[in-house]
Amino acid sequence: MGIRLSPDEAWEMLAQSHTGILTTLTADGRPVTLPVWFTVLDHAICLQTPRSAKKLSRIRRDPRASFLVETGELWAELRAVHLSGEITEVDDPAQAERIAESIEKKYAAFRTPQQALPDATRDHYAQMAYLRFVPDPRMLTWDNRRITTRTG
Length: 152
Hints:
Elements: H1 7-16, E1 19-25, E2 31-37, E3 39-41, E4 44-50, H2 54-61, E5 64-71, E6 79-89, H3 93-107, H4 119-124, E7 128-135, E8 140-143
Antiparallel strand pairs: 1-2, 1-5, 3-4, 4-7, 5-6, 6-7, 6-8
């Protein structure tokens, strides 16, 4: 009984997922897990974060991270892709712009209008850093919808 996704299926699921779960490490090695909006570009998970975000300092100190997307409510519906790898800040302006455009295209309809945000929130999100998570080759995946019960 094979419940694993192929690499192509896993990348398709990643690309279609709305919110990912990113885990980074504190200075003493404790994990910090947060929901993030993201995009998939060139078999990498790309995201943006405010320059003042604590996750950025954690990533600069230790690039090891993990990333998860999942779906399903019933056990028989559960699907997930879990990646481990390294996440780094993007220094190339062209690559940063590509990430920004892809995220804007994916999430424009879900954003709160700027004028509806308090000044402090607008200020917090005014300066963004762009990140690229490159996973290790091995992916942990499952799709419980592939499990069938045979009778007789």
